[in-house]
Amino acid sequence: MKRKLTLKGAIGLTFILGGIWIAASNFMPYLNSQKTSAHIDPSSTGKTDVKTEQKTEQHSLYTVRPEMGEEMGVLSIPKISAHLPIFHGTDEDELEKGVGHYAGSVLPGEEDNSVLSGHRDTVFRKLGEVDIGDLLVVNTSAGEFTYKVRKVRIVDADDRTVIVPKPRATLTVTTCYPFDFIGDAPQRYILIGDLVRK
Length: 198
Fold this sequence. Notes:
InterPro entries: Sortase, Sortase_D, Sortase_D_1, Sortase_dom-sf. GO terms for molecular function: hydrolase activity. The active site is at residues 119, 176. By secondary structure, this protein is an alpha+beta fold. It folds into two domains: 2-59; 69-197, Sortase, Chain: A (Beta Barrel). It has helices spanning 2-36, 50-60, 92-97; strands at residues 71-77, 82-88, 99-101, 113-117, 135-140, 143-156, 170-177, 187-197. β2 (82-88), α3 and β3 (99-101) form a beta-alpha-beta unit.
């Protein structure tokens, strides 16, 4: 008799634990979905949060987004007296004409990382003379955006950290390195600037 009660108790306990596990596994995704969808102000006034407002504001900078290959602005680098046309895209067609804007990045002036690339033997021949504290000025249809160089880096050619998202409006300018290398250069010369005026 004692053995039967123990077996029944074990079966009952298994059902109870199984029920708790099922309830918890169904509740957790619901709880997570509530956290990720909580972009509404907790005061229930219907206001969106700061991130949503920033996204709306940054998209309002440009009424029209550039097409691939289209000239979209000018990059000025006072330190080296350079005024370079910027084209949307970084294929050889764009880079032959001037500076290329990496299409997977935001447009200049917007929050996040705007990435510009150019050839070391044409548009960015003197880029090595630009240093921390120097200015990079971008003029587009949305206005003039001034960035101050915060960091200079030299990375391997396959280093993808150059195009990662940034928490604030950033301009990343990249070219092949060393500047006097013959053939496909093994590294990249990177300038990273923070937006200081728009």
